[in-house]
Design goal:
By secondary structure, the protein is α+β, with helices and mostly antiparallel strands. It has one domain: Glutamine Phosphoribosylpyrophosphate, subunit 1, domain 1, CATH 3.60.20. The protein contains three helices and seven strands. The strands form two sheets. A four-stranded antiparallel sheet has the order 1-2-6-7. A three-stranded mixed sheet has the order 3-4-5, covered by helices on one side. The longest helix has 13 residues.
Length: 116
């Protein structure tokens, strides 16, 4: 769902989409920004830990900055720490000029074909 294409001066730079759900916008933005702004490779961007706020509760996968979660708790937020990566946080697939990735939260995989 929500296929998103990003173009630059050289053409198509990134194509990204995710399995449906209310958290898909956050998952797509996290992966796209990880690649475009932070320089992550596709697999690293898709696999990195995610968090998602609901009201005053923050759901967080293992690997989310523990100091930041502790600060949120000190400010009155509740934090639910998930024990593993989970499909609750979306299932993103991405293709870029340098590679592709499928979300391990949904047993994802990417196959790159040689176009030559």
């Amino acid at each position: 769902m929500a296929p998103t294409l990003v173009f630059d001066d050289d053409g198509l730079a990134l194509g990204v989409g995710a399995a449906g759900g209310t958290r898909l916008g956050m998952a797509l933005a996290t992966v796209a920004l990880g690649i475009l702004e932070e320089g992550f490779e596709p697999e690293a961007a898709v696999s990195r830990p995610r968090c998602y706020p609901v009201g005053t509760l923050v759901n967080a996968e293992p690997g989310v900055d523990e100091a930041a979660l502790a600060r949120l708790e000190a400010e009155g937020w509740s934090v639910r720490r998930w024990p593993t990566l989970h499909h609750y946080f979306g299932g993103v697939s991405v293709v870029t000029r340098v590679g592709a990735a499928g979300d391990p939260r949904r047993s994802g995989a990417a196959l790159e074909l040689d176009s030559k």
